[in-house]
Design goal:
The structure is a single chain. By secondary structure, the chain is α/β, with parallel strands linked by helices. It has a single domain, classed as Aldolase class I (TIM Barrel). Helix content is 45%, strand content 15%. It has an eight-stranded parallel beta barrel with strand order 1-2-3-4-5-6-7-8, surrounded by five helices. α1 packs parallel to α3 and α8 packs across α10. It is globular and about 45 Å long.
Length: 255
Amino acid sequence: MRKPLIAGNWKMNATHLETIQMVQKLSYRLEAADYARVDVVVCPPFTALRSAQTVIEADHLLIQLGAQNCYWEAQGAFTGEVSPDMLEKLSVSYVILGHSERRQLFNETDAEVNLKVKAVLERQMTPILCCGETDAEHEAGLTEERVDSQVRLSLQGVSAEQIAGLVIAYEPIWAIGTGKTAGADDAGAMAAFVRGVVADEWGSTAADGVRILYGGSVNAANIAGFMAKTDIDGALVGGASLDPDSFASIIRYWM
């Protein structure tokens, strides 16, 4: 049985002081039973990771910490980059990799994402690998071809055992921050497709273990529909995760 995971991607929002307040407010709205049912992850900006770590550890919170990206080298002359070693020392558990904004705005390739995935796994952190098609690809009927390629290339050389423990987030790019969403049926079908790609490349055990999230304008009103789909194991939430009330409602999707 795969435990659901709800992760909040705060993107370039929240100072370190705001992050402390947001984490605390979220914790006030959740109970032990919620954490028993769902893995809760917050992914603040790099500048706020230490503040989030401090409040989580000081208050003994069950919220887990995630980062939004990392470089693949441990150290060196890479101005502006953050290494997986740095994240590991901040008790980061999850790292979002290959997000569409990284791919589109910063020209990240599948080969680069693959290096990052391997580096994160080496430090015993869990990648949240993002995949998804553009609006043009969607309209041209290339969704499955694009997602298939992203998954296989981004995870090339990763073992079946490692695949079983990681997370893949299907995020149709045309639905990110636009208010548009893939319908629950379509999202469920794509999650099943991703699981099928994993099964074909790495086997049924890996496919049964990997958690597949949906992302793209997820909110408190539509989360239950997505979570009702067999192959959707959670959500990667953008804007709605910035409001502790809204994010708590998403986490408690069954209520």
